[in-house]
Specification:
By secondary structure, this protein is an alpha/beta fold. The protein has a single domain, classed as P-loop containing nucleotide triphosphate hydrolases (Rossmann fold, 3-Layer(aba) Sandwich). The chain is 19% helix and 28% strand.
């Protein structure tokens, strides 16, 4: 499925709507990958998603720390939102230092992984792949691929 989002506000609204569709999967964490060039809106999408899931902390890009974990409240179906930015990683085995395999074993984890192409050699199939593409007119195209 593909949509054109003319404004950042509409990207945030899309993320909030997307959050309502999420539910844990049986036996494994829910992995969602976000692809797109720098400035495409990956972190903006994650911020709005986190807010929709009840995260009150400031959500910022984990580019330098690689991973941020947010504990979610009882009103949502997940217990933790794990936000990973793989931009600075060179290969999938580097995810091991973040406890990625352990995090994937917990079905109540929602893992949002930016820059999956950096570590695709170590990734299971994500539940949903999201690609964000900025357009010349300032809008963004968002494409969802469900596995």
């Amino acid at each position: 499925m593909q949509k054109n989002l003319p404004t950042l506000s509409e990207l945030e609204s899309e993320a909030r709507d997307f959050a309502k569709t999420l539910a844990p999967t049986d036996g494994t964490a829910t992995l969602i990958t976000l692809s797109g060039e720098l400035g495409a809106g990956k972190t903006a999408f994650t911020k709005a998603l986190a807010k929709a899931l009840g995260v009150e902390d400031a959500v910022t890009s984990p580019t330098f720390v690689l991973e941020k974990i947010y504990v979610l409240g009882e009103s949502v179906p997940f217990t933790r939102l794990i936000h990973i930015d793989a931009y600075r990683l060179k290969e999938g085995k580097e995810l091991g230092a973040l406890g990625f395999d352990e995090a994937m074993r917990e079905e109540k984890n929602l893992i949002i992984l930016e820059w999956p192409e950096q570590v695709d050699d170590a990734l299971p199939l994500p539940a949903i792949r999201i690609r964000l593409e900025p357009q010349a007119d300032g809008s963004r195209t968002i494409t969802y691929t469900h596995e």
